[in-house]
Structures are given as C-alpha cells and as structure tokens.
Write a structure and sequence with these properties.
three-stranded antiparallel sheet; little secondary structure; about 325 residues
Length: about 325
C-alpha cells in the first residue's frame, strides 16, 4: 500500500507470478486507477513471440468495456481464431467496419473454404453501394410479397454503353417476370434511346407468346407515320399464321378513318406483287357508300397491260356484275 508514491516490481532474468487461490465468488484480482484524470493502465512487452501479451481464460470469458472507442491495432494484422463457430453480437447498437485505405480491398470478406451469408430483418434493406448512396445493389426484405424488391442502380455511369453490364461467357442469362399471367408480372425495359444493337434494332430468331390467354403483341405508342417499322437490311420477311381453327386468321387492319392500307413493291420483276391462295378463293370488297369510295385497279405504265385471266371451265369463268 503506497499512499504517496509508486510501486515497482522488477525481475531480472526471472519469472514473476502473481497468483490468487480463490475459494468463492468475488475473489478477484483488481488493478484499478481511481479519480478522473489522464491516467492509464499500461501493459507493455518487448517480447517477439506471437503471444507477447496474452490474456487467457481457460474456463470463462473475457470482457472488455470501453467508455470511449476500443482500438485494436496490429502491425501484422488482427486474427480472431477459434475452434468452433462463434458470433459477434452487437446488442441495441450498430456494428460498422470502416477502413480509410484506398485499395479495392480496403475491407475484404474472404471465406477460404465456405460461403458468406448476409441477412437483414424484414422491412430492412441490404445495400452494396458507393459512399453517395446513389449507385448500389439493394435488396429490400419484407413479409409482404408486394414490398419485396431488388434494385440495381447506377447513377454515375455517364453516357457509357455498359453502365450496367451482365455477361455470361459460356452460358445464358434468364430474366423471368413471375408466371406472366398477372397484369403486374411484366418485363419492362425503358430507355431514352433503348437499343439492342447500335442501330436500335431488336433482333430475335422468334417472337412468341406462351401464356394461356395473352397475345404476342408488338406495340408502339408513337404518334408518327412510321410509329412501328418491321424491316430487314438484307433478306426477306415471312409472316405465317399456322393456326387451323376458325378465327386463326392473318388480320392486317387499319381502324382510323383517315388511315389507309398500302401494299407497295419496288421490285422490277413481272410478279412484283403477288396475292395468291393455294386453296380457297379471294374476296376484294369495297363497302364504302360515298363519292370516291371506289375499287380502282389501275395500270400507269405505257406498256403495262391489265389482264383478267381465269382457268375456270364454268360458263361464268369471268363475271363482271353491277347490282
């Protein structure tokens, strides 16, 4: 007991042991500084081994409480190793990993042999993003199905064509919007200049609808004369309706009162435009009942003839009939 001075315990080339043989609760060894001033308890070792300073509780735990920050600084790293699985529990507070390093691995989570699992409570979000929180991968968990969302956002990609990029080197990429039957189960792609190729052309070997009631529609809401263009730069276009039931027709319809339907060919072949049925007939009907609502068949070339030919053997093989 030193009421006015200090206490030194020195050993030269020897071992110093402080042992307390306990027989009940409260038989502690206390090292305490009292009074609120700039004083510390310092354990210093010049040893060169990995356990130069060692805290060892063979049967119990170790508790470290700090009224201010708890600093762990290891020049060679900080290792937490145990035989069994363990949890780092933070009760009623926030657990943050913060690194001031500028490398791509400033904070690295590595599982050499196993996986990494990240979970959040329902109504909370799991976010991987930048410090400005405007570019991120966000998962919103919720017990309500309609509130569960996954969002990938890039707010700083500029005009880069690959601001968000999905690459499958050897396999494919599948985007499945639910069962596809609900009106909200849509796959929506929005872009100011959306393009699949640099020419803004959507190319596919097939456009199809496999839903039980839906129709495979290609729709444009542009109010332009060429609001929807289906074209090929080389090669032809085949439109085939393979249905074999009543109503399985190929319908090309204009519904606007001032909207015309035109079939135009720039071919110089003799059969530049062919309308043909392999079986069945052809009806051309003009149902208008006003001046100008005529059925006009006109040739404009000086050497262009108009021919009506029938191979029928009936008496009225060609019939021109005015009611």
């Amino acid at each position: 007991n030193a009421t006015a001075g200090g206490i030194d315990i020195d050993g030269v080339n020897s071992t110093i042991n402080i042992t307390n043989t306990t027989n009940g609760a409260g038989d502690d060894i206390n090292i305490t500084t009292v009074n609120a001033n700039n004083s510390s308890i310092i354990l210093t070792s010049a040893g060169t081994e990995a356990d130069a300073i060692k805290l060892d509780a063979a049967a119990g735990g170790i508790v470290i409480n700090a009224g201010d920050a708890l600093a762990l600084d290891g020049a060679g790293g900080i290792n937490i190793g145990v035989v069994a699985d363990f949890a780092i529990d933070v009760d009623a507070s926030t657990f943050a990993l913060d690194a001031s390093a500028v490398g791509n691995n400033a904070i690295a989570l590595t599982a050499v042999n196993g996986g990494i699992l990240g979970k959040v409570a329902n109504t909370k979000t799991l976010v991987l993003g930048n410090s400005a929180s405007d570019t991120y991968f966000k998962l919103t968990a919720n017990t309500t199905a309609n509130a569960q969302k996954i969002e990938i956002k890039n707010n700083t990609g500029g005009d880069q064509a690959d601001a968000i990029k999905l690459i499958a080197v050897d396999g494919g990429i599948t985007i499945d919007a639910g069962g596809g039957d609900d009106p909200t189960d849509d796959f929506i792609v929005v872009g100011n200049n959306f393009s699949v190729t640099d020419a803004g052309v959507v190319t596919a070997s097939e456009f199809s609808s496999t839903g039980p009631t839906e129709t495979g529609e290609i729709t444009s809401e542009l109010d332009l004369p060429n609001a929807l263009v289906i074209g090929t730069t080389v090669g032809g276009i085949d439109i085939t309706a393979r249905g074999d039931a009543a109503g399985d027709d190929l319908d090309i319809t204009t519904t606007g009162a001032a909207t015309e339907m035109r079939l135009t060919s720039a071919s110089t072949e003799a059969d530049a435009l062919v309308i043909r049925t392999t079986v069945g007939g052809i009806d051309i009907t003009a149902e208008g009942n006003a001046a100008g609502d005529d059925l006009d068949i006109t040739t404009e070339g000086a050497a262009t003839e108009m021919r009506l030919t029938s191979e029928s053997t009936e008496a009225d093989a060609i019939k021109i009939h005015a009611l």
